[in-house]
Design goal:
Layout: E1 10-15, E2 20-30, E3 33-39, E4 45-47, H1 74-87, E5 96-97, E6 109-112, E7 116-124, E8 128-133, E9 136-141
C-alpha cells in the first residue's frame, strides 16, 4: 500500500527551472493531490507536475511498414509486374554491357554491373536513358544518339 501524501513529504516531479524530474517537497495539497512543490535541487517553487510516464512500445503487427522503406505506389507495382513479364526474355548473354559512352535504343537489353540485366524503356534527350531493372526504373547517363 502507498502512504497517504501530505505537506512536507518528498515526491518526484518535473521541475520547471531544472527542466528535469527531480526530488521535491510538497508545500500545498488540494485534497489528496499535491498542488505546490519546492524543488530540492534548485529551491524553486512551482505547481506540481507529475513525471511523464514513458509509453510502452506496442508490438508491431506483421503488416506494419518498415521505417524508411519506400511505399509501393501503383507505378512501382506496375514496374514489378512489367519486370515479371520481360524477365524470362532477358538473359545476361544477350544483353550489351552498360557504359555511359554507349548510345541506346528503346527495347534494347543492357547488363549493368550493379543493377544487373535491364531493358531500355525510354531514351530521354539529350543524354539520358530510362532502364527497367529488377530493382525498379533507373535514369542513367548515355551518349547522345
Amino acid at each position: 500500500m502507498s502512504k497517504q501524501l501530505s505537506a512536507g513529504d518528498f515526491i518526484e516531479a518535473r521541475c520547471t527551472r531544472c527542466r528535469a524530474v527531480t526530488n521535491h517537497t510538497i508545500i500545498a495539497m488540494v485534497g489528496t493531490v499535491p498542488a505546490r512543490v519546492r524543488c530540492n535541487t534548485c529551491d524553486g517553487d512551482h505547481n506540481y507536475r507529475a513525471p511523464k510516464v514513458k509509453k510502452v512500445a506496442r508490438e508491431k503487427s506483421a503488416r506494419a511498414r518498415v521505417p524508411g522503406a519506400p511505399r509501393k505506389t501503383k507505378a512501382i507495382q506496375q514496374d514489378e509486374q512489367q519486370w515479371q513479364e520481360i524477365a524470362g526474355q532477358l538473359q545476361s548473354g544477350q544483353s550489351a554491357p552498360y557504359s555511359m559512352e554507349n548510345a541506346y535504343k528503346k527495347g534494347e537489353a543492357v547488363n549493368h554491373p550493379i543493377f544487373g540485366v535491364g531493358l531500355v524503356m525510354d531514351v530521354l534527350a539529350p543524354n539520358k536513358v530510362e532502364i527497367l531493372f529488377e530493382a525498379g526504373r533507373k535514369l542513367l547517363r548515355c551518349r547522345q544518339a
